[in-house]
Amino acid sequence: MPESKYKLIAGLGNPGKDYARTRHNIGFLALDALASKSCLTFDKTRFESEYTKARLRGKEVFLVKPLTYMNRSGLSIHKFASYYKIEIQDIIIVHDDMDLEFGKIKIVKSRGHGGHNGVRSIMDAFGNNDYIRVRVGVGHPSSGRDITGHVLGGFSPDEICVLDRTTETAAKACLHILEMGVISAMNIFNQSPGPLGA
Known about the structure:
The chain is an alpha/beta fold. It is built from six helices and seven strands, in the order E-H-E-E-E-H-E-E-H-E-H-H-H. About 35% of the residues lie in helices and about 20% in strands. The chain has a seven-stranded mixed sheet.
């Protein structure tokens, strides 16, 4: 399949200040780090998303933050991709992942949703899972705490200490994928210990 004219990097999260600094929004925070690194701001809205467009690592790229709430992320991303004729293999999704310790990054492609409602929504919207995912670890809840409370909760003091480094690493992973491809990125970022274990 030919490469699309554009690439799309979407960070998953929930809109609004109540969710802004929660584990479930680490995809948004990673995209903010990527935009900041590239001197960009999310100054446009379209297809129920905030977005910006730039040339990164020699590619024309849309950075997209869906505003549809997590469970309906796929609707916004699918509209964006359809309008700009972006093939699914040219899409990178950045999202929180409880199956990874906080701060660890893992890049995967063509994998199941793993119970993540935002990823499930994207799979449902596109009808397949042939996109790249940058999974950003947020760890499992401590015993006695429910999953919803964990992902929608704020960061612990220990997590805050490594949050910037974590989102910066996720941003670097996205740039590496653009420049060198997903296999090279997997070889580098999937081997690295997370900031808490560094």
